[in-house]
Amino acid sequence: MYLSRILIPATLLALFAMPAAAASFDCSKAGTPFEHAICDIPELSTADDRLAKSFATATGGLTKDSVVLMRADQRNWLDYAQRACTDDAQPMTSGRYSENNGSCLVEKFNTRSGALEQSRMIEGHRFFIKAIYGALPDPNEADNPDSYWKVASHELVMPLLDADDPLAEAFNRYVMDMASNQSDILSPAGGGEIGDLDPSSDTSVKLAVKELGGSGRITLAVNTYWYGHGAAHGNWSISYLHYLTAEDRGLVAGDIFAGDDWANTLVEAAWAQLQAEHPAEWLQVEAAGDIAEIVVEPSRWDLSNDYGLVIQFQPYEVSAYAYGAPTITIPWEKLDAIKAETQDQVRFGW
To answer: Is the pLDDT of residue 226 over 50?
Structure first.
């Protein structure tokens, strides 16, 4: 079955445009289990009201073509939400949502609102979001009536520029290319099989604009989450994509640092900073070489701090999972000896 067949419109956007006290539509006309859930579950009614406002705001000021895209996305999401919170990845046609499935709906609604709220003006550029969703039954859980993980859900959200100019065309192409490296969901969205997605895990990939470095750089934060059904906990990551507008490419290390020994200098500085910022009892690395490949990777660099270079580590890389995803901040002055001529231009857009 193709993703385009799974994510077909099931509820009209008008559902979110009608005034009412309990939800964003007239609850006296609720007919489906999905509509009844919105009216009967107070937390979901609140989430639905937020969603209506978030969508209206997200589409405000967009070009006609982008509004059409976002409306199609919203219809697809509505269908996905009805599938992701059932026991068989099919919309409920009778009965009522269980407490757990109702809580699932609340989470899906609030997550969607959070994504829509990334559609906005940022320093003169109008960004909007493109999102893709998929839900499929987990065959390993189908015969377990007590399973909490009968349906696998997959989500991808990414920002695009709403403009008809070379920058928007190039940036949007870059984002789509990078997103395809982060999530498998783009394959079935292009006509492949939904069954190619992992039916035994939930995944979420969110790309969001973090910073504009003048007119020369757009930095995206990439947040991923993966949960294998039945596991003790999920895993997650934080990384960055730095798009250089004039060059139409991603950042490379040579844009920030120079010299034959820049990597060793950065690694040694990072090692010293890691020990200075984090308690020794939490660290699970023993030498600078243990973090060498990590700290020289531009996708780990947060350039937004005027004081220093922020380097992002993932859970488990340098410490126990319970310690989270630690960062270090190396003062720029400590890295002055390896500063590339283009560093200020990249950081500030000069």
So the answer is: yes
Angstrom distance (rounded) from CA 108 to CA 89:
14
pLDDT at 279: 96
Give the bridge partners for 71, in sequence order. none
pLDDT at 142 over 70: yes
- C-alpha separations of 84 from 171, 172, 204, 254, 296 in Å: 31, 28, 13, 44, 39
Structure tokens at 157: 């959200």
pTM greater than the 0.85 cutoff: yes
Asked if the 3-250 domain carries CATH number 3.30.450.20, the reply is: no
Residues belonging to the chain:
350
Q: What SS3 state is found at 58?
A: helix
CA gap 220, 243 in Å, rounded:
8
Instruction: Measure the CA–CA gap between 325 and 335, rounded to whole angstroms.
Output: 23
Classify 253-348 by CATH class: alpha beta
Q: Where are the alpha helices (DSSP H) in the chain?
A: 3-6, 33-40, 42-59, 64-84, 99-116, 166-182, 186-189, 262-277, 292-295, 343-348
